[in-house]
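User: I need a structural model of HAD family hydrolase from Haloplanus ruber for a docking pre-check later this week. Nothing fancy, just the predicted structure tokens so I can convert them on my end. Input:
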Amino acid sequence: MDTAAVAFDLDDTLAVTGVDRATLLAAACREVGAPHRSRAAYLDAHADNLTARSRKPVFEVLLDGTDVDPAALARAYRERVNEALSPVPGVEAMLSRLAERYRLGLLTNGPVVAQRSKLRALGWTDRFDAALVTGELSAGKPETVAFERLLDALGTDATSTVFVGDDVEADVGGATAAGLDAVQVTFPGGPEPDPAAAAHVDRDALPSQLPEFLASR
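Assistant: Understood. Predicted structure tokens for HAD family hydrolase:
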């Protein structure tokens, strides 16, 4: 079936931070007087709160036993991430070109406040035909229901929709289980290429290679 829509993950696929997230988290902790917390601990807590409205529940877990305000740490971390965030070079022009032929979607894991603020920081609030944040849904990626909600919002079916993302479990595994073809975005230090993906594209080459793959389907 011809491709009708292309949907994307956000973080580490279309946009990246110029400073690594562990450093940003450490700086935010210092700013509000919180004890140091590792990136791994943050990711564990984040994974348990994919349908939360904000990162406050994430930091409540990390700050358990302290008197630091989790909302203050959530705000400090959000501000630092947004300041460091920028589009992968060339993807904005790519999205504009793709929009001439396909419906564009976004499905990003995370709390509403954090992920919507990233879209505002990037100037992407109106970039997609459907932009879903799992904090607004009943489940996050890789759950099939999250991808079903994306398809509903796009008005397309799985066989005519391609999902593009970097995470093996959330993006490739979730999309393929829901019946979509997945394109895995790869980069140094990222996940190894997953054979379940229909294609693998180096992130730096995404603006040129993704349109070529879509045209070849």
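Before docking, keep this in mind: The longest helix spans residues 70-84.
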